Amino acid sequence: MNRHFGLRTTILLFLLLPLAGTLLSAQDKFRLSGFLQPQFQYGEKDATLKVGTGNTRADKSFNRVGIRRGHVKLTYEEMLAAAVVQIDASEKGIVLRDAYIHLKEPWLKASALRAGVFDPPFGNEIVYTSSLRESPESSFIYQMLFPESRDMGVMLRLRAAPSSPWRLLTLDMALLAGNGVKMETDNRKDFTARLNASHDIGNTFRIAGGLSYYRGGVYQGTETVYHMQGKAFVADSDPYNKGRFAKREYRGADIQLSAPGRPWSCQLRAEYIGGYQPGSATGFQSRNASALPAYDTYVRHFRGGYVIFVQDIARTPLSSVLKYEWLDPNIRLSNEDIGQNGSTEADIRRNTLGIGMLWQPDRRIRLLICYEINRNETSTNLAGYGRDRKDNVLTIRLQYRF
Fold this sequence. Notes:
Oligomer: single chain
Distance between the termini: 51 Å
Radius of gyration: 25 Å
Helix content: under 10%
Largest sheet: 16 strands, antiparallel, barrel
Shape: globular
Structural class: mainly beta
Number of strands: 18
Order of helices and strands: HEEEEEHEEEEEEEEEEEEE
């Protein structure tokens, strides 16, 4: 009996060896990564924090603790194809961040096709991973234009062969739903593209930059659409307006300069964005909901951007950070113009100066401390904005990457 048992076991093991080899091979193609960001924030009485609930004492400053991000990313890559799924888990729930297929062309393996949920190809900061970002959040203008920093669609990447003189250029073009990661609600697709170039000068200097364009439409939920004429919103009321699409158009330029590999390595990044944004009477932010809008459309001409400088401190794991950003959601209005002729808090300009310090003893651990000084336009014609709001924010964040 023992002899037969041993024979059956040997045969079974022999049959399972190919399957075990397949499983081990597949395991090598999976890659699990992510990062966790526990965070403490202190805000003045009018501040908006990224963790915890809002202020419950309108006349007092407040503080909150929470998990700003808990990203878990699973990648499976084999030959020319890869599948990526990433979620963000925190005390607020679980949110989808990425879910896409990436296919390389088989000849040069330089160009590629991507389909699913991913970063829209516009500008530099939107594709700059949160685990490497030196400021607490992406710039306010990106939070308004791309609320979830993701969208659904398909993207084509064109890049020349490594031996080509055009190898410095990359062109990304995408057709998007235009509604973040929420369910699509209309037949319209948005187009966006970015042409990027980068060049290394020896081992001491790197320069990169790009030009971006976004053209899409926002469903008009009523027959009334407001456009600026002079310093006033003027209504265009027409039954045919309902169901049409208001122009959503952005143009951007970005540049990145860095001097890596030195004791005092540093980098400078900047972006400028301008264009037209359809919103509501009281909201500038891009539509981000699984339902068609049912409010009047207000079209605003905006401008904004940011400049960030990061300086490593020689022979230490410390870096200093200085960032200035601004958003003017309506360049036709300023100060006392706001609060009249249909304008609201959605037309207020905002500027932020962030002063921070990074401690990075190794590639996995990072401590960020940043104090952001927020300033806004003032207008005695708009309640709550007769003077600068008290909304400065202190952020202390610990991060661990895996």
